[in-house]
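[job 4471] stage=fold_predict status=RUNNING
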Amino acid sequence: MENVEKSALVTGASRGIGRAIALALAGKGYCVALNYAGSRESAEKVKEEIEAAGGRAFTVQGDVSKSEDVDRVFKTVKEEFGGLDVLVNNAGINRDALLIRMKEENWDDVIATDLKSDFLTTKAAAMMMMRKRKGSIINISSVVGIMGNIGQANYAAAKAGVIGLTKSCAKELAARNIRVNAVAPGFIETAMTDGIPEKIRESMIASIPLGRMGQPEDVAKAVCFLASDDSSYITGQVLVVSGGLAM
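[job 4471] inference complete, writing structure tokens
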């Protein structure tokens, strides 16, 4: 791409929160690299939405829990953008089960996709950003990583790990003017929550002080703030977007 003034890479950008983040960043003038693992058609639709609104984007496939894929993704980003201003680590999965019934592979899959991927991409992004002595890395954690949740020991461990990774990287990279923060969404209406039985959904909403589930756009607005110069003196923080669920 030519004349790229602001660039961003969003992992897991083909749907849900990732899609909302990509659209919001594009609306703020960022050229956006849309990473996806398997949903090419969905990622291409996000690209088309961005372009229809006058923005610029391209799609790049890669399983960011695998180092060889991360290397390829960042090589493509460098070729297209020449550098990188913002990284949003949004890729994630859940494999819910009670601890005594949880299979080892379900633990490993969630830790790899939700935590190891952030390590790999943050490392790659930091190496690019250090040359410019500027950048913003935003990791999508979860209130589950703060509060815990029944049936999500793997997910909670991964998302708590994301918070620890965020704070450590923020301390390491601050000297190079690279900020690292996390956003911890609460109950957000996405495909992941569509299958929740109505009775459980009502119970979840009852536990939220603001009395409603969040929208992907609520998370996207928080990400845009942390990506912008408006948050230039903020690093190592966890911005909770939960309607008051986690206080």
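[job 4471] summary: The mean pLDDT is 96.
[job 4471] exit 0
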